[in-house]
Fold these 2 entries.
Entry 1:
Amino acid sequence: MVHAVSAEGLLREHGLRVTPQRQAILQLLLDEEGHHWSAEQVRARLLPTMPGLARGTIYKVLEELVRAGLCEELPTPDNLALYGLRLTPHHHFVCTSCGRWFDVEAQGAETLTMVLGPADARVDDVAIVFRGRCHDCQAS
Ligand SMILES: [Zn+2]
Ligand SMILES: [Zn+2]
């Protein structure tokens, strides 16, 4: 999916001041939508163009993007969170063999919230994780 919006525009829209670091990290997520990145992977990709980019800065920016509602933070078994773009609601499929996360369209989730929400609770968001083996891993 191609977004007409720029990283700069999205930051402003979500009340974040535009800094080179925020812009570069968000742009990377926009360019490769559907990927879910560890902070270390983000760093490896951006270091050639931003040699001064510190690990701590990347974590800080990613957390700011999560708080602003632009990004999602996904837990992993080794406690290294993965970060992905979240401009539209979606669910995930995680491959138990290679550990990759894939976005899954959110269709049908509304029905589940009606059935599974606890009494008197108002459900704002549903996160479903499907587990299995991805296409590549089934082939090998
Ligand atoms: Zn796989
Ligand atoms: Zn995702």
Note: Helices lie at 7-13, 20-31, 39-46, 55-67, 109-116, 135-139.
Entry 2:
Amino acid sequence: MKIKITTTSLILLVFLSCQNKQVPKSIKTTTIEAPEIEKWMWLHGTADTEAATLKAQFKTLAKNGLTGVLIGGDNESMFRAAKAEGLQAHIWLWTLNRGDEYIMKNHADWYSINRNGESCFDNPPYVSYYRWLCPTNKEVRSFLKDEIRKLSQKDYIDGIHLDYVRYCDVILPVALWEKYNLIQNEELPEFDYCYCETCRAAFQKESSNDPLKLADPSADTSWINFRYQQVTSLVNELAAIAHKNEKPISAAVFPTPPIAKKLVRQDWISWNLDRIFPMVYHAFYEKEISWIEDATREGVNKLEGRIPILSGIYMPDIENELVLKEAIDGALKGGATGISLFGKLTSEQWKMVKGE
Ligand SMILES: [Zn+2]
């Protein structure tokens, strides 16, 4: 529950109490609002910057009850068009998975190296767009910090949304194993990062062990924690920059704290963010729709109310509006303060989001 006291009503209150008169019924001194369910959507940047098209697009999204949009890339006209319709507009960034031309051309040494000694620069794992930067590398950090600083200072960007802020999947969500013809009951060396010189030296300083010489790196708690800490400290440094510029910052994360740690080394419970968007994509984990509630609750309980959770819903796996209702209800029952949608919705599904 939020209690809002406006400046005008405060002034009135003081004035009226000096007059020793009762506050007229028509003037509200306090407004008690029901908690609002936040509804967000990930939105790919578009090359189409035709003002009328953008206006129509965002008008429809606002009419459909969205709170805000997470826009892929720094496309000023999209941000301004969204804001003009009353939507919050945050920039959706690929943080550590970066195939940028500039980085590829100039900084091959920024890329993560797996336990076999192969770099994401020329040996991307699973898919060609998996180009993971090393979070320990100081130059990578300063590049990312500069980027967040510049974006946070733009007046048309309301906030920052970090995606791909993690290591490469050392284990893929189970539903993808077949697609890549893999069995990942253990951490395979070709998907296990990062063993670059910087990481090896930094870990050796902490533990006097070379991670490459560990008998079973997947069982070494210090090595596991070292990597959680690399991402956590990066996120918290980026958060401090956004906050300094008075911009909220959030992240898309793997669905529950244990899954996020095990699959991608994200310890998101330790991140200083303003919102967390766990991607509770049930079908990726071969779960029923009811799992959305359980997964959401797990994160909410671990965070102990410190940070609002908005459950991410993957629309390609939502068959119809009734399933969407189950997903949204489940997220809210699990303690989410809202939802975020990925993918396209039918008009019937939009009606459900709007609450019609
Ligand atoms: Zn490294």
Note: Residues 1-34 form one domain.
